[in-house]
Amino acid sequence: MKMVVEVKSVKKVYGAKGNVFTALDGIDLSVMEGEFIGIMGPSGAGKSTLLNVIATIDQPTSGDIFIDGTSILTMNEDQLASFRRDKLGFLFQDYNLLDTLSVKENIVLPLALAKVNVKEVEKRVDDIADTFGIRPILEKYPYQISGGQKQRTAASRAIITNPRLLLADEPTGALDSKSATDLLESLKELNEHRQATVFMVTHDAFAASYCKRVLFIKDGKIFTELVKGTSPRKEFFNKVLDVLSVLGGGTSDTV
Amino acid sequence: MTLFSLAKRNIIGNFKNYMLYFLSMIFSVVIYHTFVSLRYSSEIEKNIESFQSMRSVFLQASIILIAFVAVFIWYSNAFFTKKRKKEVGMYSLLGLRKKTIGKMMFYENLLMGAGAVIAGVLLGTLLSKMFTMLLLRLLGTDVDVGFTLSLEAIGNTIFVFTCIILITSIQGYRLIYNFNLIELFQADKEGEAVPEVSMIGVIIGTILLVFGYWIAFQPVDSTGQILRNLLLIMGSIVTGTYLLFRTAIVYLLKKAKEHKSSYYNGINIIGTSHLLYRIKGNARMLTMIALLSALTLSAITIGISQYYNFTTHAKQLEPFSYTHISKGDIEEEKIKEIIYEDKNHPVQAEMTVPLLKVHSDPSDTDLPEYLEQLMAEFPEEDFINLISAKTFNQVSAALDRNEKVTLSGNEAAMIKPRYTHDSFSDYEGRTITLKLPEDGKQVRFTHLLEGRVLSWRYPDAYIVLSDELYSEMENQIQPVAYKTYQVEDQKNTELTSNQLNQLGFNELQLSTFYKVYKRGLESAGQNIFTLGFLGLVFLAATGCMIYFKQLTEAHSDKGRYEILRKIGVRKKEVLTTISKQSLFIFLLPLIVGISHNLMIVKVLLGINLIGGDISFPILSSIGFYIAIYLGYYIMTVNTYYKIVNL
Q1: Torsion of CA A225, A228, A229, A233, to 10 degrees
Q2: A-contacting residues of B 250-269, CB under 8 Å?
C-alpha cells in the first residue's frame, strides 16, 4: 500500500513573542491509501490546525508534510492552488457551497476549473448523483435545500475529481443524527468501494466510530491511537468514548 | 464614556471602513463649494461683460448640483449603512437600547459630515482658484487670479450640507428602528433568486429601442413634430433600455449558461452565474446610469460643439471686421480714421456694398418655401435684399473666399439663409416676382450660394442678380450702401471696436466682428464650462455609483471567493473573473450610453441645436467618458480583488 500523507514533526506556533500559543507540537503521522482516519480531541487540541496544515490552507512553523511523496511546503501559491484542485477534496462543517450556483453547478465546479470536457462532466455527475442520493435536487439552489442535502452536495463536490485525499472538517457538526448517519454511510461506502482515502476531524464519537483508525490529539501532541480492526462499530464506539473520558473535555456522556 | 466619544472612537477605530463614505462626502462638498465660489467670485464679475446672465446660469447649475449631491450622498450613505447593519445588530444584541444606538449613529454621521464639510471647503477654495482661471481663459480674458476667500460661498455651502447631513443623520438614527434584529444580521445573506426570462419583455424592449432610433432618423419639419418625436423617443428609449437591462441581458446570460462547453470551462461558470445572480438588483441602476450618461454626454457635446464652432458662426454672422451704413457724411470719415489709426490691425480690404431693398409680389405662386414663409410674416416690409453678381464676387475676393457666380438675364442666386437646412433643390427653377415702383421683374433661381455678405439680420433674404438686371433696377429705386472693412487679426480688435461703438450708432447702423465674436465666446465659454463641469461631475458620480455597487458586492462575495480558494482556484483566476465581471458591469452602460448619445446628437443636429463640424465634440466627450470609466474600472478591480483576497 502506498503512503498518501506523511507528516513529519510538524509544529505550529501562533502569536508573537511574549504571547505564544503552540497549536501543534511535533506531530508525526502517516496515512495509507484507502484509509479512513479520524482525528479527535478536546477543543483547542489542534485538530483543525492539523487539518488546515495538511489541506495547504495554513503553513506549519516547522516540520515537513508530504502528500503523494511531494513536499507541500516548497510550493508557491499557484502551485498549491493547482495541487488542491487536483489532489484534494474538502468537506466542511458549514458546507461552503456557492449560493449563486445550482447543486449541479456546485458539484461540477472543480471539473470546470480543471477544464474537463462536457461529456465527461455529465458522466461523472450522473455517476455520483445516486451515491449521495441528490439526483432529485440537482437543479435546485443551495437556499432551497436542507442541511443534510447541502452536506451531501458538498461531499459530491469533494470527490467528483477522484481526489487522492478527502479532508473532512467536522462534516456532521451541523447535521441532525439522521442526516449525519446518511452522510457517514456514504463516506464509508466511498472508502470501501472506491478506495477513497478519508481524513476526518471530528469531536463526535459517533462519527469517529465509522473510521478504521482514530488518532487522539491533546495539547498539540498525539495522545493515543485506536484501530477498529474487525470489531463491530458499536464496540469501537464504546472504545472511543473510553479514550475520550480519559482525555477529558471530550464528552459528557460518560457521567 | 459618553455616547459622543464612543461615536468618535468608532470613527477613528474603523477609519478604513468609513473612508469611502467620508471621501465621497468630501468629493460632494468640494464640487459644490468650487461651483458656489465661482458664483460669488469678484474676479469673474470684474472680467466678464455678461456676468448677470452668467450668474443666473450658475444659480441654475448649482440647484442641479444640490439635487445631485443630495442623491449621491444619500446613495453612499445607504451603501455605508448596509455594511454596518451587522454591527448595529450586535449592539442591540448586547443590550444597548435602540435609542442609544440611534443616537450613536446620528452623532457618527454628524461628526463625519462636519469633517467632510471642513475638508471640502478648504479643498474647494483651492480648486475654485484653478477653475476661475480656467473659466476666464475659456472666455478669452487672461488675468492673474488672486487668492480670495468668499464668506458668502462658504456660508452657502455650509447651509446646504448641514441640511443634507442632518437628513442622512436622521436616517442613520432610524436604521435601528426600521429593521428587525434578524434582518440586520442577515443583511449579507439575502438570497436573491435567479430571475426568470420573459420573452415578451425581450421582444418589447427590442422593438421600443429600434422604434426610438428609427424616429431619431426621420426628418422633421415643424416644431410640433419635433416635440412629438422627442416625447416618443424619450418614452421608447427609457422603457426600452430598462427592458433591455432587465430581460435581454438575463436572456443572453442564460443562453451563455446553456452553452455547456464554454460554461463548464474554467472560471466562466463563476463569472456568468455571479452576473446572473446580481442582474436583477443591477438592472435599475444600470438603466439609470446609461440614460444619465447619454444625456450628460449630449450636454457636453453641445457645449464643446458651440465652443469649437463659434468662430465659424461669428464669421457667418459678421463677415467683415467692421460694417456700417454709408451716408457719405462726416461721421463716416471719422470711422475710417479710427480704423486706419489702428496700426496693429492694418486694413486688408475696404469696399462699398450697395443693395436694393424690395418686396415680392403677393400674387406669386411659385415662391421657394422659405421666402413664402417670410412673405407671410412680413407682408408690408421690403425685406428682400438684392445685390449684383459683381458686388458678390468682389466681396468673395475681399474675404478670400473661392465662391464666384456668373449670372445673365433674369437668372438669380439665393444666398443660403442661416439656421436653415435648405438645399439647392428647394430653389431650383422656382421664381419670384420682385415688386418695383413701375413694374414687377420675375427672376428664376439658378444657384444657391454659401458666402454671406453683410451682418446677419432677420429676415435673412439675400438674392444675387445679374449685373444688367441690377443696374436696370437701380434706376428705379435708390440703393442702400454699406461700407465694409476687413482688417488683419480681427479677433483682437477690442480697442478699435470699443472706440467705434462709443460713437453712438446703434447696431443696425454699425457692427463689428469683435463684438459678435466676444459675445459668442462668452456664451460658448460659459456653456462649455457649466456643461463640462456638471457633465464631468455627473460622469464621475455615475462611475462612482458602479464602484460602490461593486464594492458592496465584493463584501458579500468575500465568503464565496474564500470557498473558491479552498477548492483550488488560483489567485490569477480570481483576478480574471473579477476583471471580466466588472468589465461587463462597466461596459454595458458605457456602450448603451454612447449609442444613445449618438442618437440624441443626431436629433439635435436635425433640429439645428448644434451644427457645423461635430466630430471633434463627439469624440472628445466620448473620450472623457471612456477615460473616467477606465479609471473607475481599474480602481474597482483592484479594490474588489483586495477585498475578496483578504
Answers
A1: 170
A2: 260-261, 263-269
In whole angstroms, how far apart are CA B48 and each of B132, B149, B306, B525? 12, 20, 18, 11
For B8-27, give one letter per residue: b (16+ CB within 10 A) or e.
eebbeeeeebbebbbebbbb
Q: Is the separation of the CB atoms in B200 and A108 below 8 Å? A: no
Domain boundaries, chain A: 3-247
| Residue A110 with chain B: CB contacts under 8 Å | 567-568
Q: In what order do the strands lie in the sheet with A88-92?
A: A88-92, A165-169, A198-201, A36-40, A213-218, A221-227
Give backbone dihedrals phi and psi of B244, rounded to 5 degrees, phi first: -60, -50
Distance between CA atoms of residues B488 and B346, nearest Å: 6
What is the nearest CA distance from B570 to chain A, expressed in angstroms? 5
CA atoms of A245 and B499, how far apart (whole Å): 110
| Domain limits, chain B | 1-190, 347-487
Note whether B274 contacts A100, CB cutoff 8 Å: yes
If we measure between CA atoms, which residue out of B22, B62, B140, B79 comes closest to residue B518? B140
Helix (H) or strand (E) holding B288: helix B268-317
Question: Which residues lie below 8 Å from residue A55, measured CB to CB, with a gap of 6+?
Answer: A84, A88, A90, A167, B566
**Chain A nearest CA to B644, separation (Å):** 14
CA distance A177 to chain B (A): 26
Choose among B579, B574, B548: nearest CA to B562.
B574
Q: Specify the 3-state DSSP secondary structure of A197.
A: coil
The domain made up of A3-247 has a fold known as Rossmann fold (3.40.50)
Inter-CA distances, B520 with A239, B138, B317, B508, Å: 97, 12, 10, 18
φ/ψ of residue B281, rounded to 5: -70, -25
- pLDDT at residue number B239: 92
- A228 CB near a chain B CB, below 8 Å? no
Query: Which residue, B608, B607, B612, is CA-closest to B220?
Result: B607
Phi-psi region of A13 (alpha: psi -120 to 50; beta: other; left: phi over 0): beta
Half-sphere exposure of A27 (CA within 13 A, CB side): 35
Reported ipTM: the value is 0.80
- Say if CB A154 and CB A97 are below 8 A apart: yes
Q: If you count residue pairs, one on A and one on B, with CB atoms under 8 Å apart, how many are there?
A: 83
Q: Is A166 on the interface with B (CB under 8 A)?
A: no
Q: Identify all chain B residues contacting A99, using CB atoms and an 8 Å cutoff.
A: 191, 560
* Closest of B363, B529, B351 to residue B435, by C-alpha: B363
| pLDDT at B219 > cutoff 90 | no
Q: Do B269 and A101 touch (CB under 8 A)?
A: yes
A153 vs B contacts (CB less than 8 Å): none
Amino acid at position B624, single letter: F
Check residue B400 and report its DSSP letter.
Answer: T
Measure Cα distances from B487 to B127, B316, B340, B491, B610 in Å. Answer: 40, 16, 9, 10, 29
**Least confident interval from A11-15, A67-71, B42-46, B570-574:** B42-46
**How far apart, in whole angstroms, are the C-alpha atoms of residue B381 and residue B377?**
9
Centre a 10 Å sphere on the Cβ of residue A232 and count the other Cβ atoms it contains. 9
Segment B86-100, tens digit of pLDDT: 777 778 777 778 888
**Contact of A66 with A105, CB cutoff 8 Å:** no
Selected residues 179-208 of chain A with any CB under 8 Å from a CB in chain B: none
E strand or H helix that includes residue B424: none
Q: For the segment B327-383, what is each residue's pLDDT rounded down to a tens digit?
A: 777 778 888 888 888 888 888 888 888 888 888 877 777 888 888 888 888 887 888
Q: Are A197 and A34 in contact (CB under 8 A)?
A: yes
Q: Is B191 on the interface with A (CB under 8 A)?
A: yes
